[in-house]
Design goal:
There is one protein chain. The chain is an alpha/beta fold. The protein is 30% helix and 28% strand. It is built from 9 helices and 15 strands. Strands 3, 4, 5, 6, 7, 14 and 15 form a 7-stranded mixed β-sheet that branches. Strands 10-9-8-11-12-13 form a 6-stranded parallel β-sheet. A two-stranded antiparallel sheet has the order 1-2. It is globular, with a radius of gyration of 19 Å. The model has no long low-confidence stretch (mean pLDDT 95).
């Protein structure tokens, strides 16, 4: 089979031939039909001290099952998070991380919706929104952000603002249902909002906090770091809430399943319309990474083996 690898930190991605893996205990072997490309994985290529397997979101058909697997069988269509080599024709997937793909959805639909949707829905739940409140979503054109904009609207937000890195993304974000679009670096982000869903962090934390009305909530779910002054929280009675999807998946799997079912229901009835920026072949993985690195994507970026 083919898989994508790199030899040194920041080094070029290349295709290699590798044996088809055998599923271990509790694992599925999935013939990959779609693979999500995400910023955390792209960052690993440039930031990890040693080369790491390129894993992430995958979807496809189960072609073999390991021992101790009871929930799935060969022929099932599944999606899930792969922690080994996922940029490949075949990938092992822990059955605990797998979920079924409905008959009415494609593998591309599954990768575009499920993991990104869980993060977006979880961050929104952490904000505890009330109907009629106003929301701001950073990285609003990203794979997660595009769904967060739609979910905030579906959960009753009276006004949704999308924040983006480039004004060229404004029309796309408005097409998702945003009432207004602001650009990082603008002086002020318009009328204050009740909550912010921030996927960027770093230098954007300060303007995101400033965008809140007194008593507002900032949900931080980025790996981008950043610092907030306690004084800025105190004077506006504002709060910052950290959200990590991995913790929810580990400690509250039943909640993850409810969220997953909700996402599929909203997809089926047309409430959620995930956008795909582009689908690349495995040999075009470097180009897919460049789209993410340049922050030029409008929606999800995928590989299709």
């Amino acid at each position: 089979m083919r898989r994508v690898r790199y030899d040194s930190p920041g080094g070029p991605l290349f295709l290699e031939e590798a044996p088809v893996p055998e599923p271990g205990p509790g694992e599925l072997l999935v013939r990959c039909e779609a693979v999500g490309v995400t910023l955390p994985v792209v960052r690993k290529v440039t930031e990890a001290a040693e080369p790491v397997p390129l894993g992430g979101e995958i979807a496809g058909e189960v072609v073999a099952v390991g021992t101790d697997v009871t929930r799935f069988r060969t022929g099932d269509r599944v999606t899930g998070l792969c922690f080994t080599h996922g940029y490949a024709d075949y990938a092992p997937l822990n059955s605990d991380m797998a979920s079924p793909v409905p008959d009415y959805a494609s593998a591309v639909d599954a990768v575009t919706l499920v993991r990104s949707g869980l993060v977006a829905l979880g961050a929104l739940a952490a904000a505890q929104p009330e109907p009629g409140e106003t929301a701001l979503v950073t990285a609003a054109a990203s794979g997660v952000g595009q769904l967060a904009v739609q979910l905030a609207r579906a959960r009753g937000a009276a006004r949704v603002v999308g924040a983006v890195s480039d004004p060229a993304k404004a029309d796309f974000v408005r097409s998702l249902g945003a009432d207004a679009v602001v650009v990082y670096g603008d002086d002020g982000w318009g009328e204050p909002v009740d909550y912010v869903l921030d996927a960027v962090g770093g230098d954007l934390l300060a303007p995101a906090l400033a965008a809140l009305t007194p008593g507002g909530r900032l949900v931080a779910y980025s790996s981008g770091g950043g610092t907030i002054r306690a004084y800025d929280l105190l004077v506006g009675a504002k709060s910052v809430i950290g959200f990590q999807m991995a913790r929810i998946a580990r400690t509250r799997p039943e909640l993850c399943e409810r969220w997953r079912q909700e996402l599929w229901r909203m997809f089926a009835d047309g409430t959620l319309k995930p956008a795909v920026h582009g689908v690349f072949a495995l040999e075009e993985a470097a180009e897919a990474h460049e789209v993410i690195e340049s922050r030029s994507n409008l929606g999800k970026v995928l590989l299709r083996p």
